[in-house]
């Protein structure tokens, strides 16, 4: 209370009251001075009597205080109500839910209105809003339903602030559980809103039993025994030491059960469940991970007991070009192994005869045609290789014109392949243009390159200062001739995985370390290895060879190069692995234990690794949105045959919803990056969405297609946390200048609003002398003085 705010209603009595007060104080003091008794007792009695009488004398002046209060109906108080499903959480049987309690409290009908709301309406202009995925005005025709699939709390506060930015805002009374589905990634300053927020929370704190799939993740590898791994975190609240069943079901096969596990959950601790399986077919597929208790204990909700996962298994066929300097056993076993993979197409280009000098002393019957083609007929001899050209054999080609001129002569021709394997080729096999084309194949096109060991491989002449040398993950050796590059054939070398190799699933052939160690011990000893120099920066040795004298040599080295990847396999006799019989290693006759099966799987996984990240001409990426007020971003990258960005392509983009409805979506060319097209899709329901993209040139010729999928789990996200998020609500209240309010404190809270700062106020006078506390204090003082006099013998 400030003295400048005190006004006297009867100032004419001031002189008389002052004289009377002074006279009374003097008389009372003289009276107690002449009375016998202890000093502090007489002082206490005197003070009580003086205070009581002075209060009564002050009432004669009719003192009043000048106060400010909100001008009635001049300030807006917004009521923002959470209308999402999570507000329907049931505390116990026959007990009202949060939504029911809230609906009763905020009701505006005259028959149901609460006293606190009536008092609030007398002071403020109340605006009712409800929110779930977005904000809407709340009135009789648009009431609360409790069926919202998300809680866009933060964006709803911003929306209310935007709607009422030109009004005098007294604050926002917020009814929610605080479990927002649109929390910002960065820290938010709620003090910038310009008005206080008053979150209202339930008084009841009850442990509600619930079981949920908190989150799921999908990992795909080139590991044949388990190419797809789904990891799910199962959390429980109020459920301890119970067995639950975690199931993985395919949505495409009428909820066909793929796999299930029984685990024991502990209250408050997440339980990780790993499900490994092989998808039934390539492409985008949707699965459901669900959890259910074995007994019939009731849960608060089952909406968070399942989540949708998307598995995008690589779609081929991937084309691999194998170029070898001579026929060899490695190609035979590689071709046999890849024949079992329907997603890989192996095309071979093998030299069966080298070029010969054209200028030589020959007889008159000699010809420029290579003698290998002599006697095959006129037609064959006309198309045969010349004597100064190598004789190449094509295997696995689709058309007769494919590789008819030998190694691809243009970028467009080479870029049709996803990976390139070079085996036992000397320096002069490629000209400079061809080596630069291979470099562009890896760097720009993003292809995979594997350089294999052999008699002519990793020669310093072909490696140093050439594009092939740039692509190699290892440096060539110095001072060694072509015949000295092979290690001593009397040495035997053992195949070992490096630390990086153990961490790479595509190099492992067993499910655990113990069985993989046992398998490595059964591998044959190798004798033909190319000497190489040190590893280049960024390269990693995945496999090493250990000689009998303990010296390690790099056997398989990999590195990233531009948009692609390269690898060097320095072994020249890897075929030994495929030549062994079970009896040679003391094994059984089981097909799965055959060394041939292991080597075949190793070939498939190595080639799969080569093509795993090779981009197609048409590629689509999706950034899914779990919030209903933000769209899913779809980006398409289109490339021409030379893998340069292609503008002005004609795109057809279709999105299939969980209900099976197909919707056409328009994709616009980006103004920031060439060859990039962008689209937005607003989802309305929960489940899996499939986007299918087809690209054509301006003349209508087909470029390519792609598909991508994403999952929207609004219900599971809405029910992630059943407890009231008090921490978030308290943060919002404190930073905005408000306070947390409990339902039982609403009446007192509304009364206190009159003392808060609001934009529009008015001044009014309060009669202090007319307050009951003044009379009570005066009576208490006089009664106290009388009691002291009677008990201490001062009367």
TrEMBL record:
It comes from Rubripirellula amarantea. The chain crosses the membrane at residues 12-33, 45-64. This is Glutamine amidotransferase domain-containing protein. InterPro entries: Class_I_gatase-like, Ig-like_fold. Keywords: Membrane, Transmembrane, Transmembrane helix.
């Amino acid at each position: 209370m400030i003295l400048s705010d005190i006004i006297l209603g009867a100032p004419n009595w001031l002189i008389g009251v002052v004289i009377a007060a002074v006279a009374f104080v003097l008389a009372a003091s003289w009276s107690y001075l002449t009375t016998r008794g202890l000093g502090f007792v007489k002082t206490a009695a005197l003070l009580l009597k003086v205070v009581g009488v002075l209060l009564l004398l002050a009432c004669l002046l009719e003192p009043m205080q000048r106060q400010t209060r909100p001008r009635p109906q001049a300030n807006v108080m917004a009521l923002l109500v959470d209308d999402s499903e999570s507000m329907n959480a049931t505390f116990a049987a026959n007990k009202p839910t949060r939504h029911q309690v809230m609906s009763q409290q905020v009701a505006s009908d005259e028959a149901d209105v609460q006293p606190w709301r009536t008092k609030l309406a007398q002071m403020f202009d109340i605006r009712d809003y409800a929110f779930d995925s977005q904000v809407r005005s709340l009135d009789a025709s648009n009431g609360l339903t409790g069926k919202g699939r998300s809680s866009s709390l933060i964006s709803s506060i911003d929306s209310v602030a935007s709607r009422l930015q030109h009004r005098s805002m007294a604050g926002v009374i917020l009814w929610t559980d605080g479990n927002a589905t649109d929390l910002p990634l960065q820290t938010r300053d709620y003090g910038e809103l310009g008005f206080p927020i008053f979150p209202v929370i339930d008084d009841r704190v009850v442990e509600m039993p619930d079981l949920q799939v908190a989150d799921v993740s999908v990992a795909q590898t080139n590991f044949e025994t388990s190419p797809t791994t789904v990891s799910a975190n199962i959390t429980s609240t109020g459920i301890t030491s119970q067995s639950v069943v975690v199931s993985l079901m395919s949505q495409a096969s009428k909820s066909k059960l793929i796999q299930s596990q029984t685990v024991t959950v502990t209250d408050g601790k997440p339980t990780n469940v790993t499900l490994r399986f092989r998808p039934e077919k390539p492409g985008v597929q949707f699965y459901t991970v669900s959890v259910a208790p074995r007994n019939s204990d009731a849960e608060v909700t089952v909406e968070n007991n399942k989540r949708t996962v998307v598995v995008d298994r690589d779609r081929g066929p991937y084309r691999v070009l194998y170029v070898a300097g001579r026929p060899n056993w490695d190609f035979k076993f590689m071709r046999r192994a890849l024949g079992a993979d329907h997603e890989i197409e192996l095309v071979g280009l093998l030299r069966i005869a080298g070029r010969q000098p054209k200028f030589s002393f020959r007889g008159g019957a000699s010809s420029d045609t290579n003698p290998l083609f002599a006697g095959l007929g006129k037609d064959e001899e006309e198309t045969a290789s010349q004597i100064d050209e190598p004789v190449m054999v094509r295997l696995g080609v689709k058309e007769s014109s494919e590789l008819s001129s030998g190694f691809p002569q243009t970028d467009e021709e080479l870029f049709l392949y996803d990976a390139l394997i070079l085996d036992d080729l000397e320096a002069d096999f490629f000209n400079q243009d061809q080596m630069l084309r291979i470099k562009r194949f890896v760097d720009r096109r993003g292809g995979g390159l594997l350089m294999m060991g052999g008699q002519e491989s990793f020669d310093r002449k072909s490696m140093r200062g050439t594009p092939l040398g740039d692509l190699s993950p290892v440096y060539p050796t110095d001072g060694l001739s072509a015949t000295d590059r092979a290690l001593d054939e009397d040495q035997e070398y053992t195949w070992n995985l490096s630390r990086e190799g153990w961490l790479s699933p595509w190099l492992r052939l067993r499910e655990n370390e113990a069985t993989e160690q046992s398998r490595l011990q059964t591998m044959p000893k190798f004798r033909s290895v190319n000497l190489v120099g040190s590893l280049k920066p960024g390269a990693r040795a995945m496999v090493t060879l250990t000689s009998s004298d303990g010296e390690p040599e790099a056997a398989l080295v990999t590195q990233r190069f531009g948009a692609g990847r390269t690898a060097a396999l320095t072994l020249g006799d890897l075929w030994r692995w495929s030549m062994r019989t079970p009896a040679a290693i003391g094994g059984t006759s089981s097909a799965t234990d055959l060394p041939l099966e292991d080597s075949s799987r190793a070939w498939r996984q190595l080639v799969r690794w080569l093509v795993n990240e090779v981009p197609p001409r048409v590629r689509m990426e999706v950034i899914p949105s779990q919030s209903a007020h933000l769209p899913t971003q779809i980006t398409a990258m289109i490339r021409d045959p030379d893998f340069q960005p292609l503008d002005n392509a004609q795109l057809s983009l279709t999105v299939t919803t969980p209900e099976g409805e197909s919707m056409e979506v328009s994709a616009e060319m980006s103004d920031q990056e060439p060859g990039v097209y962008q689209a937005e899709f607003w989802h309305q329901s929960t489940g899996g969405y499939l986007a299918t993209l087809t690209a054509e040139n301006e003349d209508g010729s087909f470029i390519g297609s792609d598909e991508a999928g994403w999952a929207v789990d609004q219900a599971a996200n809405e029910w992630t946390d059943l407890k009231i998020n008090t921490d978030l609500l308290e943060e919002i209240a404190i930073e905005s200048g408000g306070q947390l309010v409990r339902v039982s404190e609403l009446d007192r809270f509304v009364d206190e609003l009159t003392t808060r700062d609001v934009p529009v106020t008015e001044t009014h006078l309060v009669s202090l002398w007319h307050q009951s506390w003044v009379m009570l204090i005066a009576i208490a003082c006089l009664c106290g003085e009388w009691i002291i006099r009677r008990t201490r013998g001062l009367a």
